[in-house]
Structure formats: structure tokens, C-alpha cells
Known about the structure:
392 residues, TIM Barrel, eight-stranded parallel β-sheet
Amino acid sequence: xxxxxxxxxxxxxxxxxxxxxxxxxxxxxxxxxxxxxxxxxxxxxxxxxxxxxxxxxxxxxxxxxxxxxxxxxxxxxxxxxxxxxxxxxxxxxxxxxxxxxxxxxxxxxxxxxxxxxxxxxxxxxxxxxxxxxxxxxxxxxxxxxxxxxxxxxxxxxxxxxxxxxxxxxxxxxxxxxxxxxxxxxxxxxxxxxxxxxxxxxxxxxxxxxxxxxxxxxxxxxxxxxxxxxxxxxxxxxxxxxxxxxxxxxxxxxxxxxxxxxxxxxxxxxxxxxxxxxxxxxxxxxxxxxxxxxxxxxxxxxxxxxxxxxxxxxxxxxxxxxxxxxxxxxxxxxxxxxxxxxxxxxxxxxxxxxxxxxxxxxxxxxxxxxxxxxxxxxxxxxxxxxxxxxxxx
Length: 392
């Protein structure tokens, strides 16, 4: 067995909608048959995944009867038990049905907003029944094309009311879930409210139960906006709000591509894995590593499982390279050059009169500091050489 082959201990998960994607796009029909959820569970287990995540409609078709719903859930639970798989995260599809054409929680029609809450409560019941402890909210239709239709502040208040309500529902039922909000700048709407992880983090600070609510950043959604995904994830980690993460690949400036993780921007993927694994010394992320992506439209079913294995193997390869990079003596030397055990303590922990006095007394040669080269060209070259496999 290769050290890069996935195991359950790696905490890798996929959504039913990811490997189950039939390859349709706005310009062409599906190219692969639909796979039953129990079969997806079996195949993901064979690939080495730890768990499978789902929208409500991924498992139980919209409009199914209570008896049909219960039968489907029993069969799915049997498959999970048979293959030792978990459901760490669940979510609600509030974007596919035409009723959500003007949004779900933010729609102008209160009947639509009421239906969105109904559907989400039922989906949370399903998630709890399957053991999910993370519940993701992606507001795929919470946005506008005709901005004159509502005051954006009204939309944000409606979103706030919905999340506050659902936090209360979760607490009242003892589900013990954490909520993770997923940002995206555009597509399928012209502009989506709360478009980046930074927006979401501030929004969370306005909620009644903010301790229950964090974020679920996605590579493609931040890269679409031209942002550094690693920086957004680091901000969420620093705030203690990285509750879940969606891994995939994306080219800057393109539509939401959901490519195989690490297939684009290998340096960005490396820096992300380095951050998540804490190889530089920071606290690592310990939650599920979820791949929200799908196979190329060129693939048959064999290609789908090759895609799934590729996502997981690439993550493990990048983890290995991050460990080697941060253990590299030359890398450690460059990073250590700018530490100062005398000055550093004066710059952390906030103000004190003693620190202010000590700082004012420092004799700092500003011109010498300005002339000093920082060797970041060499540091970046070392990173590239580790990525290309000629070092480490």
C-alpha cells in the first residue's frame, strides 16, 4: 500500500452530489447514469473515504411520501453500517426547485421564506437521524440580478432571522449540531449576499447564538473572487470558526468549476494543506476534509472513482511535501532570521506601560532594516523545488 493511499483516519469525505454528478452542464445533457446512494457509499468506502455528506434531496427525492422516505433512509443507514461509513455533515437544497427563484431565506414572498424554513427543519431532522453534527448553509439563490427588488439590509435581516430561528430549533431538539455558513460571490445569481468568508464571519457576530455558527469555505468560491483561499481559511481558523471545509480546484476568473482537488494552482493547494495540517507549527484543523467537486464530463463511472482517489491522494502528497518543506533546514533558517527574542515579547499581548517604555527606548537602525534582504526569493524557490520533487 502506498503511503499516499487514503485511509479512514484521514477524515476524507465526499457528497452524494459530487461523485454522483452525472456530468450535465448548461449546454449538454448528462453523460453518466445516476448511481443509487447505497452504491455510492459502498464505492467511496472501497476508495478509502471516511464519510459521505448529503443534501436532503440527494437522498430523499423532493415530494416523496413519508413511507418512501423512511424506506430510503433505512436502506441508506444499512449501507453506512455495512461499510463503516459516517455522515459528518448534512445540508438543505434551497436552490434547485423553481420556488426558490428569488431566494429562500431572503425571498420577498413570506410564503417562500416559510417553506424554506419548513424544508430546512425536515432536512435537519434527517441529518440528525443519520448522525450528522455539522450542518452547512449555502445560500445559492440568496442574491439578486435586479438589485432594486429589495434593500440589501432587508435581505441580511431575513437571513439573520432564519439562522437564529434554526439555531433555536436545533437547540430545542437537542441535535447538538454546529452550523457552517458557505460563501460564494456569484453564480447562480448575479450577486450573492454575504459573498466571501470575511462577510460571513462578521455576519456570525450579529447572531443570537454565534457560538453555534462558523463557516464552510470552499476553494472555488474564494478563487472565483480572486482571493487567496489559504488567507480566508486562516482568518476562519484564527477566529475559531472553521467548522467545515470544501476542497476542490478552480481557475481564477472562470465559472464555478469544482475541479479535482490540486488539479489547478498546486502552490495554492500546497499552502492550504500546510495551513490545515499545521506543519509550520500552528494549530491544525481537525474536522472532516470534504471534497466538493466532480469528475470531468469526459469520464465514465471508472473515471469518477479515479477522480475521487485522485482528490485524496493529492491531499496526502501535499501533506507529505508540506511536512518536508517545514522540516527543511534552509527553510527553517530563513524563517528564523527575523525573530528577536528581546523585541518579540514587547509586541504581543497588548499594551502595558512597561512595554511602551521599553519600545520607546529601543535604538532601531531603520536604514539598516530597509537595506536588509529578506531571502523570500530563495524561500519561494525552495517551495517550488519541494513541489516539483527535486528537494525533500
